[in-house]
Design goal:
Layout (H helix, E strand, L loop, with lengths): L2 H21 L5 E6 L2 H11 L10 E7 L2 H14 L8 E2 L12 E6 L5 E8 H9 L3 H6 L11 H12 L3 H12 L4 E5 L5 E5 L4 H8 L1 H5 L1 E6 L2 E3 L11 E5 L16 H31 L2 E2 L6 H7 L5 H10 L4 H7 L4 E2 L12 E3 L7 E3 L11 E6 L3 E6 L3 H5 L7 E2 L1 E3 L7 E10 L4 H11 L3 E10 L2 E10 L2 H12 L4 E6 L7
Parallel strand pairs: 2-5, 14-16
Antiparallel strand pairs: 1-2, 3-4, 4-5, 6-7, 8-9, 8-10, 11-12, 13-18, 15-16, 15-17, 19-21, 19-22, 20-21
Helix pairs in contact: 1-3, 10-12, 11-12, 15-16
């Protein structure tokens, strides 16, 4: 084919593309060229390819405004012409080492010949044509054609020839690189680092290496020790002193300007807080499990998966940061039964039985009477008299044997303390256990033991508390009932087998 024939083929190829882009409201500039014979020969020789393996004999370049439009145009090209899948290259998402960016695709043209299509933005095109220095035009928002030139690079060469010593050349270079939005600082070895205006030694440390930033203890600027929050200026020589024990601080986030430093600090703080939460959650769970008896240790990994966590470690972390209540975990650990370890103080409950004191008596564990309760004595075989509350179910069972019942009265001496069993039902939420415990403490009661069972969004909590009398018990129940989410508070009688 003659050159003119190839140019005509390219024009025929472009027409449907231009129409489709116009229909989709995309503005683009088309350039094209048929590869000349000598270039074809050189490419075949340099790459060891046959003529049939040269796919860019005909080429079209499409230049548009945005990266998004580049990919839209690529889709439109493939809608019109069938692509060769082995010949597609995406140098936009993965630029070449020299910063070259473009989309390359080879498609079958209207006459069955291969046509190479390159799609890029205007900025990518300038970088491809005049090299990496084109980046400076776009950094300064100077996009007027012809306004940008590379004379400053030649000027640097002149300074190097004319400067009597390297120090003067460096001073000229630092002054020229000054920018209202960027600074340029140096390591003690002379390596140049570009940072945003307002950057601190912490930014500089992370720019060198993440590990240096994480263990940055202090900084020297021009051989003078300065705080890490110091704002750097162009031309300064910065030295970072590290210490293995040094760790990032939350305050550093307010002192850095670069995204790299901020991201690294946040990542480290998240990891450190995570480890702390794991330890905190494990300790909390261990304390709660001491009140339970199990045949074998619980499989926390299984419990974690049931609750939607990947493993026991993440479950403990959720406990530690308060995202998960310990009651919900306990409710999944089975077969566990509460292990009562109520250690009573020596009872100081004196009773008069039909006017007489110091007879052999004991108090019913089924109803645990306390001063202020209405009570009655029950004669038991071989164990003297057992004192029950008058509403105790055991008293109801022997009502047919009135001869076994005795009249008894309270006669208190000193400051008695009695253990009472309370059960609460509440809507589960964070800090519920702490709020109930605080309410019990406000009326002067001591909590001897507690455990929690959670079913769905409802938490059942058992408390064994020390009270002086039923008036103090009534005050404790009243305080608990006024807590947000509490549905019910009951004094519970514990049935026994005796």
């Amino acid at each position: 084919m003659t050159r003119q024939e190839r140019e005509d083929d390219i024009k025929e190829f472009q027409i449907p593309l231009e129409e489709r882009l116009h229909a989709n409201g995309i503005k683009a500039e088309f350039t094209s060229r048929p590869k000349n014979f000598y270039s074809i020969y050189n490419k075949m020789k340099a790459r060891g390819k046959s003529f049939e393996e040269i796919y860019d004999l005909l080429a079209v370049r499409i230049i548009t405004d945005t990266v998004a439009e580049c990919y839209i145009i690529l889709g439109l090209v493939h809608q019109i012409y069938s692509p060769n899948e082995d010949r597609f290259k995406d140098y936009i998402s993965r630029p070449k080492s020299n910063m070259y960016q473009s989309l390359h695709t080879s498609v079958f043209g209207p006459k069955g010949q291969y046509v190479e299509v390159q799609i890029r933005t205007a900025q990518m095109h300038d970088t491809a044509e005049i090299g990496i220095a084109a980046h400076w035009r776009y950094k300064s928002n100077n996009k007027v054609p012809g306004a940008f030139n590379l004379s400053w690079l030649k000027q640097f060469g002149d300074w190097e020839q004319e400067a009597p010593n390297p120090l003067e050349f460096m001073e000229n270079l630092k002054a020229e690189l000054a920018s209202p939005d960027e600074i340029f600082v140096f390591t003690p070895k002379g390596d140049l680092h570009q940072l945003p205006k307002g950057a601190t030694p912490i930014d500089f440390a992370f720019a060198i290496h993440t590990d240096i930033g994480l263990h940055c203890e202090r900084a020297k600027v021009n051989d003078r020790v300065v705080p890490l929050s110091t704002t750097l200026s162009s031309g300064e020589i910065v030295e970072i002193v590290t210490k293995p024990q040094q760790k990032p601080k939350l305050a550093w986030l307010d002192q850095v300007k670069t995204a790299k430093a901020r991201q690294a600090i946040r990542h480290w703080l998240r990891e450190e807080q995570y480890d702390h939460n794991v330890r905190l959650g494990k300790d909390e769970l261990d304390r709660e499990l001491k009140s339970y008896r199990a045949v074998s240790p619980p499989d926390l990994d299984t419990v974690a998966k049931e609750l939607g966590f990947s493993d026991a470690e993440h479950l403990c972390a959720a406990l530690g940061n308060g995202d998960l209540s310990v009651g919900k975990v306990i409710s999944r650990i089975a077969p566990l039964k509460p292990m009562r370890r109520v250690i009573r103080p020596q009872d100081r409950r004196d009773i008069r039985i039909q006017g007489m004191k110091n007879l052999m008596i004991q108090f019913g564990k089924c109803c645990d009477p306390i001063p202020g309760d209405e009570i009655v004595g029950l004669v038991t075989r071989g164990r003297g008299v057992t004192v029950h509350r008058t509403d105790c179910y055991n008293i109801g069972r022997i009502s047919a044997e009135p001869d076994r019942l005795l009249k008894v009265d309270w006669e208190l001496d000193g400051e008695p303390a009695f253990t009472v069993y309370l059960r609460t039902r509440s809507r589960d939420r964070k800090s519920l256990l702490a709020d109930i415990s605080g309410a019990i403490s406000t009326v002067g009661c001591n909590i001897r033991e507690s455990n929690t069972h959670t079913d769905g969004h409802i938490a059942e909590q058992d408390f064994w508390i020390d009270v002086a009398d039923n008036e103090q018990l009534r005050q404790a129940i009243d305080q608990i009932e006024h807590i947000e989410g509490v549905l019910e508070v009951l004094r519970v009688d514990e049935p026994t087998n005796s």
